[in-house]
Specification:
The chain is α+β, with helices and mostly antiparallel strands and 185 residues long. Helix content is 21%, strand content 24%. Strands 2-1-6-3 form a four-stranded mixed sheet, with helices on both faces. Strands 4-5 form a two-stranded antiparallel ribbon. It comes from Roseateles albus.
Amino acid sequence: MDVLQLDISGRPQAWITTREAAAIYASDGVAWTLGDPCQVMRGGLQRRTGMQSRIEVHPIIAVRGSVPSRAWRQAPALSNAKLFARDRYICAYCGHSFHVDALTCEHIQPSSRGGSDSWMNCITACRGCNGRKGSRLPEEAHMSLLYLPYVPSLHEDMILRGRRILADQMEFLLASVPRSSRLHG
């Protein structure tokens, strides 16, 4: 299980392990938390009291410190796994759902014709449709897109990273995802 790390203003920063979260707790770096504790970590015995140290780790923690001003403005990195998840494993041309092994990253404007590897130029396609389109534009291949590409928000990107997400974490992230996102469907 991973912990969702936020900056102090509530923007997602990273998925961290419970051990990493415990280190932040131990250094008094946690500003606030959300959700019920999801794991209890126990340490050694305190010499003065004889009690065992204990840290309750919450699924969402906000970390004290400065907020990097540019970090949240950047578009999330594109990967096949996140692209397929954004598009719900559905081919943009035929509309059928496929297993990840039968999908490809399809460039709307082909790479061979100057198309970029970007969220706005890439969609999910099955191998058959991708082969049929080839290095043509969709209109040249007489293939229309069933949905349009978009750049995921920071909150969507945290969901698309494919981790096992707890209910508290999903609720927090989805609250900031636009209702028009395919992740709500």
